[in-house]
Protein: Lysine--tRNA ligase
Amino acid sequence: MNSYPNLWPYQEARRIIERWPDKPRYILETGFGASGHPHMGTIGEVVRTFYVAKALKDMGRESEIIVFSDDMDGLRKIPTNIDAPWLQEHLGKPVTRIPDPYGTHQSFGHHMNAELVEMMAKTGIEARFRSASDCYADGTFDEGIRHMFRNMQGIMDLVLPTMRPENREGWFPWLPICEKCGKIYTTRVERYDPEQATVTYSCTGSFRDVHGCGHRGTQSALGGRGKFFWKADWALRWYVFGVNFEMHGKDLIDSAKLSSAIVKLLGGQPPVTMVYELFLTEEGRKISKSTGAGISMENWGRWGTQDSLNLLMFKNPRQQKRLGPESVIQYTDETLTMTPDDPQYPFIYYHGDRPDLGGLRYSDIINLVNAISVTDQDQLLEYLGRSFGHERIRANEPFVRELLEKAIHYYEDFILPTRRVPELTDAEWAMVDEFEAMMMQAPDADTIQTGVFDIAKAHGMAPKNFFKILYGVLLGAESGPRIGGFVELVGRERIRELIRAAREKARA
Structure:
């Protein structure tokens, strides 16, 4: 067991095996909130869990991944990316009891679940999908619900001290669904029968602008008529499914401890948990899901590949990371240049070896698109074929076209809006002219690269400052690729056109 690389998936696998050395099959779980569209971050959770399953398999142990949808949760607000103002009248109802705004599935929740299952299928990861609505309604949770009702006072004794004093009044771990209006967050339990697992409730609560209908009734906790509040719900799953491992964000440390305590109260053994850090903006702030601004897990897939997400999720999950546009390039480039002998490679490319693109990087494609200002994929494929071999590019065309699509989005979203022509002195423009003349005579990329250094030194300028000038003229940016390789990729005539266009803009 100690002969495997000291990578975090193996560390977690060892922890699981040490706690249950004789268990024939381990259960790994990850959760999904069905109150909105799944996204690459959602899949990232599945991928990280899969890494632990893969490590267990490498160690000769069997495991199963459960992807659990919290689709009994009520809809608290209309997602910003769903244009359906009529959902306002359904706020507070479980998402599987709200009409599908797209009209293609049985309910809002069923639609989001279907999207998740489709995204999971594309990863090739084997996982068992479970629905909270189904588990509460079809009897899967019945034994656990009855057991928790018999231990309800103990659960309350664990939870109430962790709550703010103003929130303790009238609080109860079970959330009935109102039989009249269908809402779940407006009901208040007045009495309960621990042996019969029934509750007497009133629909008199409120949240935001959503109010209860005033109905009062008594009903069983079985048959999908309600659910536990989420920390007890988490414990219920762990207990019923016998979950051995689940990872969660740093923001849920206290919640996981409380759920673990509830499982122990029930006589079960809580899972091994792994805490990961959350992603931040470039400025170091928490990423806002509501605004969708900047780089986030919701929109990573517009500019980055699944493989780049795999690497992002694999690298140092316990280390906080700041995400910005450059992050997408960084991680995608690293996946394209990672060698098969890298210990990370089997995890990033678990679905099969990466195509051989002859050293082509994502940043090369972005720089090409920027330099020639072309977004037609067929034209871009022709350019790439000149530098990396037409036969190689054709053999891997679907993969290359995916990279092109992402790069074009990146160019349109991040480069075009910020392109500018630098303000140069006559002496600096003269140095650019020397570069142009040298480039046209140089036989190869290395000679061009060396020539840039020579021109800078001849004029008493630090080479890094001259490179900055060239990047500004050619790409409208302060940094860029190796100039020699870039010239070879784009072509000398196109470089001359870029210099001429930048000079004309500077004169305008």
Summary: Residues 288-293 have pLDDT under 50 and may be disordered.
